[in-house]
Amino acid sequence: FEKTDEAKKLAEPQIRVTYSRPAKKGREVFGKLLKFGKAWRVGANESTEILFVNDVTFGGKDIKAGRYSIIIIPTENEWTLKLNTELDGWGNYGYDETKDIASVSVPVTKSDKEIENLSIALYKASENTVNLKIGWDTTIAEFPITLK
Questions:
Q1: What contacts 85, CB < 8 A, 6 or more positions away?
Q2: Which residues of 98-136 are buried (b: 16+ CB within 10 A; e: fewer)?
Q3: Which of 75, 102, 121, 126 gives 20 to 30 Å between its CA and that of 146?
Q4: What single string gives the DSSP state of each residue in 48-88?
Q5: pLDDT tens-digit series, residues 121-132
Q6: pTM for the full model?
């Protein structure tokens, strides 16, 4: 039984996220530990990276397959996620906004349960859309990515 090229492509992961999972540890995260309006590397230690196996559309821009770092600028009511070409950064120190290639802002929602460790998940939202869902403490944000 041979899979068609299209079936193989659909069966392969299209996006991978690599990140560290800091714990809340009783701290007030958003607005205190992470300042509103300031860049956050989305995790701990090394910058969080996203790999697109194929070209995608993010924030209305065509993004070529490849690795990018993820930076979030949180506010009380929305998060802005920026894709950045600077890789292998440590902490927030290496963030260079001139290397941002796309961004999208979404409203945040509140979780019914406290999320102790930062969590990132990808799930299919529609035929060609995958949502990148990020949650920590009691805050959740979902960013749409269109597969090509």
A1: 68, 69, 99, 101
A2: ebbebbbebebeeeeeebeebebebeeeeeeebbbebbb
A3: 75
A4: PEEEESS-EEETTEEE-SEEEEEEEEE-SSEEEEEEES--S
A5: 999 999 899 999
A6: 0.88
